[in-house]
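Revision sheet: structure tokens.
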Amino acid sequence: MPVPEMSHILPWVADHPLWFTRSLGVIDIAGGIGILLPSLFRRVPKLIRYAAIGCASKQVVAIVYHLTQGEPGIVPLNIVLLTLSLFIIWSRTDAGKALFGNRSIGRSASA
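Predicted:
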């Protein structure tokens, strides 16, 4: 999407270089892939926790940025995304596994 069109949706885009905006998009996509693909293919489960840590870190930085720029209206979305990331991190700890067990999507309990 061209910067002039994107700046209508995200006003901060016009204040930063294009490479910065694109790199944030790449980080978001990498985080989503890092959380989704290991869950679907049951490979490299530790990657899920690391991807969620990256997503949570980005949301903390986004919250601080939006508050310092006087944009408090977007912060609730960042808080929701941060909460989801923290839940994923917690669910991958021993406490989360003890609560949820080792349930897998698509597998029956007898398998």
